[in-house]
Amino acid sequence: DGEVHINELKNGNTEMFWNPTSEVRRQRLKRHIVLFEEQTDFESERLWQHVTSAINKGDQHKATQEKFVLEEEQRNAARERRESGTEWKPLLFQHDAGTNEWRYKYEDLRPWDPLNDIAQFEKDGILQTMERHLPTRMSNHKATCINSQITRHKRSAKDGRRRKTSDQPSNHSQNTESSCSTPESVQELSDDDGKYLGFESLCTQCGKEMNHLKEIHSAVLSLQKAQQDIHR
């Protein structure tokens, strides 16, 4: 949210590359961090506080000294663990033998889903994503709704068969019963499938949820088009 300049080393000219407006500055993302007094000794802001303070004051010599003190403490701690045979078990990182690198245990590399993902935050060192779960809730509720209609349909068909067989002679009842087929349970059906099988339309909640998802999808498409226009 600050000015960015391009400096030409050959001729010494400076060109303004980015100068954000007050509106852009107001729209900046808020930075959420754990309060300093609530941080543990090994969290970066507390651990490197003296180095950071020296850098902010422009004291490179002091910053180098503080950095050396930290690194020496870490080397000594590693040496003591090695001598005592104590295994170091990181809480948030694990070693990747293939790349010989340390990787964050809870990294989330999936694409951001604007229809389902609300916000991403860190709690106790673990990266978490707050989700709407609308598609899952929709599909589960829709399956429950359709299955209940299937049950009613099967019960109605069974009652119809009972009435039909009771009106016929006993020697035909066995044939009548065997000639009637019961619909198999269907886990996933579209609205058209339900109508084709003679079921009622989906409940009001399903309709509202579907309309809500369509509105969100339409809004996202509109935002994407606006971003493309701005990019052009």
Automatic annotation (TrEMBL):
Recorded coiled-coil stretches: none
Alphabetical list of InterPro entries matching this protein: OSBP_sf, Oxysterol-bd
Sample GO molecular function, one term: lipid binding
Compositional bias of kind Basic residues: 151-164
One Pfam family linked to the record: Oxysterol_BP
Compositional bias (Polar residues): 137-150, 167-188
Chain positions covered by the region annotation Disordered: 137-191
Protein name: OSBL5 protein
